[in-house]
Amino acid sequence: MFIAMNRFRIAPGREAEFEAIWTGRKSHLEDVPGFRSFHLLRGPRTDAHSLYCSHSVWESRGAFEAWTRSEAFRKAHAHAGSSRDIYLGPPEFEGYEPVDGA
């Protein structure tokens, strides 16, 4: 198993717009080999930003990496730069592998 996470810092007052973009997008993940699940998580809010995290679970790191080189990935991210003023910097990627053998 491999967990891929991207943390996003969102401009105050733009949270509903960010959520609409993510919930309304076509992810192209449903038929990707090795994909298990996806969640968009809302985190803490400060005066400076609201924190969100995309959380996807994959069969393996290799399956995730293959997706990042695929046409499905390019399609899913085709409009990623169209709302730049919502984001306070680029997303911060974190990848995790289980330690407990799960």
From TrEMBL:
PANTHER family: SIGNAL TRANSDUCTION PROTEIN TRAP. The keyword Protein transport does not apply. The keyword Cytoplasm does not apply. It comes from the Bacteria. Keywords: Monooxygenase, Oxidoreductase. It comes from Thermohalobaculum xanthum. Transmembrane segments: none annotated. Residues 2-95 form the ABM domain. It holds the Pfam family ABM. SUPFAM superfamilies: Dimeric alpha+beta barrel (SSF54909). This is Antibiotic biosynthesis monooxygenase. GO terms for molecular function: monooxygenase activity. InterPro entries: ABM_dom, Dimeric_a/b-barrel, Heme-degrading_MO.
